[in-house]
Amino acid sequence: MSEAKKYGWTGQGLRINLTTGEITKVPTQKDWIGGTALGYKIFWDEVPPKTQAFDEANKIVIAPGPLTGTGAVCSGRTSVTTMYPTTYPIHEIGSAHLGGDLGAKMKYAGYDFIIIEGKAKEPVYVYVNNDDVQIRKANHIWGEGTRRAAALINQETSPSASVTVIGPAGENLLPMSVIINAKSHTGGGIGGVWGSKNLKGLAIDGDQPIHIAADKEEWEKLVNRNKELLGALTQTVVSRYPHPLFEYHSLNSRWSGMPGKQWGAANPPINVPLDTRRLSKMAFRTNAGEFF
Question: Rounded to two decimals, what is the model's pTM?
């Protein structure tokens, strides 16, 4: 087994050229750390410095991390690196992060990353099922909203495929448009980048294993312990209390950190000593647990 495969990576990625239709496999370098770093390295090596978001020379690098698909806590995000159309006055590189099952399915299909380059002559979507990689016409799906587009692609490929799509906003290159996977969305306006390449969507399915260099029982203990700790936290962005920083607040928010609250899963338990509603303490949040 290669070193890359032993430590969470599959050992390879895909390069898909929409202009030529060429699809090639690229080896994963063992010193690459994660999806965002991988994306920036590819842009550093391959994309001219003055490239703008909707230029054909722009690329899209879709890359999760080495632990994605293993069950490790907080490993499910996928980095999507490209030139952002939302930066002004010039477009600059950025990595949007996407939830859903895209990253895990990529790893199950046997790929650590996907590089999409060029521009299709007409609307297309990409279908990946292990070693079978296809660029399919999407004229009949172009113009559909994200939910219907995803459903149509699932019907044409596999019900279990992870589908990532853009809607009419991305097709029309709107700067704040997004890509959607399983109701999770990116930021950065990269839906327009997909639209500029006539790329309607990406469907991925696979059934290959992911290998990690760890004792199985110790790994499971570590994962479960992290679940215990993180289960006591919350990442919600809606304040439970009125605050000059927020336009909206709700008593039903999970953001319950305030003096007297306790992070009971920590060992030893941690009491919140300060008012988390203060501007300087916004990141110090805990969850009281009453909503779970």
Answer: 0.80
